[in-house]
Amino acid sequence: MTELGIVDIREIIRTLKTVHDYDFTNYALTSFKQRLERLMVMYGIGSPENLLIKLREDLPFFDTFLNEIAVPSTEMFRDPSLWRWLREEYFPAALSRNTGKFKIWLPACVSGAELYSLAILLTESGWLDKVSITASCFSNKGIETIRQGSYEAKKMEVSEENYKRFNGTKELSAYYKADHGILFRQVSLIDTVEFKKLTINFDNAPQNNKLILFRNNLIYYNPTHQDKVLRLLHESLSVSGTLVTGIRERIPGVNTGRDFEVLNESESVYRKRTPN
Q1: Strand 209-213 relative to strand 150-151: parallel, antiparallel, unpaired?
Q2: Per-domain residue ranges for the chain?
Q3: Residue 125 to residues 26, 172, 223: CA-CA distances in angstroms?
Q4: What is the mean pLDDT of the chain?
Q5: What is the distance between the alpha carbons of residues 53 and 49, in angstroms, rounded to a whole number?
Q6: 7 exposed, middle or buried (CB, 10 Å; 0-12, 13-18, 19+)?
Q7: What is the per-residue DSSP string for 27-92?
Q8: CB neighbours of 1 closer than 8 A, spacing ≥ 6?
Q9: 234-272 pLDDT tens trace
Q10: Beta bridge partners of 105
Q11: What is the mean pLDDT of each run of 10 residues along the chain (276 residues)?
């Protein structure tokens, strides 16, 4: 496998900025390097020079790159205690005081695991018609994959265990089927979801969201980009809106004091602080 050096990565970042106006300068370098090398193996690209050529000249490959460079896909109902809390405490209270559609945004979707988990929770609780969901992906390929419902079979075993711990009302297998060794989730669950392509700078984020699920993403950014993304997420929330990050992701103290207050510390849930 070709190992990329720091000079190679800097040239790739420079090319992406110059040619496509996508700036990866503030992505965590180690993770970015690993995903670039994985991409080269997947598509048989033998040298940094050939990768640069494809990134410059092959637009379909650039879309593939955006999909593959995103945060690796996760299992469904990851951290079941969060999903139980959303079902048993958060949604009953939030929906009872809401008027109109309750706007939920999932930025940076990759596999659709979070989206389908949310849709199952809302369906089983009878709340799906009360919400409006927007799911954003960095690539058109990501949107297409989620809409088709395909999912890695190796992720399903742990997803089923998570669903049991979530205490769902059915078996998770009720929501997917196997076809020639490939798993397809029940796409009717996401019929009403609006999909939007998102820039890596988050400058086209939907506004006035009541709830944002953005889990296990901040760890792939350096502190500068973390602060920028958190600021944009804060701006896209409605008054007293809620942001959920990963359980190992804590909003830095300066932002917690200025922009957010802790709603559920153990699950890394924050509420937009109301201006005085």
Answers
A1: unpaired
A2: 6-68, 80-272
A3: 40, 15, 38
A4: 92
A5: 6
A6: exposed
A7: B-HHHHHHHHHHHHHHTT--SHHHHHHHHHH-HHHHHHHHHHTSPPP--TT-SHHHHHHIIIIIHH
A8: 37, 40, 41
A9: 999 999 999 999 888 877 654 455 689 999 999 999 999
A10: 134, 212
A11: 88 95 89 92 94 96 91 87 98 96 95 96 98 96 94 91 98 92 93 94 91 92 87 93 89 63 93 80
Lookup: tokens for 238: 């409605």
| pLDDT, tens only, 107-127 | 989 899 999 999 999 999 999
Burial class (CB in 10 A: 0-12, 13-18, 19+), 99: exposed
Please list the residues that pair with 113 across neighbouring strands. Answer: none
Q: DSSP secondary structure string, 200-229?
A: TT-TT--SSEEEEE--S-GGGB-HHHHHHH
CA dihedral 169, 171, 175, 176 (to 10 degrees): 170
- The pLDDT assigned to 252 comes to 61
| Structure tokens belonging to residue 167 | 């205490």
- pLDDT of amino acid 254: 41
Closest Cα to residue 205, out of 241, 240, 225, 231? Answer: 231
Q: Give the whole-angstrom CA distance, residue 138 versus residue 125.
A: 30
Q: How far is CA 87 from CA 12, 77, 119, 126, in A?
A: 43, 12, 12, 11
Q: Where are the beta strands (DSSP E) in 149-220?
A: 150-151, 176-179, 182-185, 194-197, 209-213
Q: Rg of the Cα trace of the chain?
A: 19
Largest Cα–Cα distance in the chain? Answer: 58
pTM of the full structure: 0.91
For residue 247, the one-letter residue type is: I
The total number of residues shown for the chain amounts to 276
> Which option is the CATH number for 80-272: 3.30.1330.50, 3.30.1370.10, 3.40.50.150, 3.40.50.300?
3.40.50.150
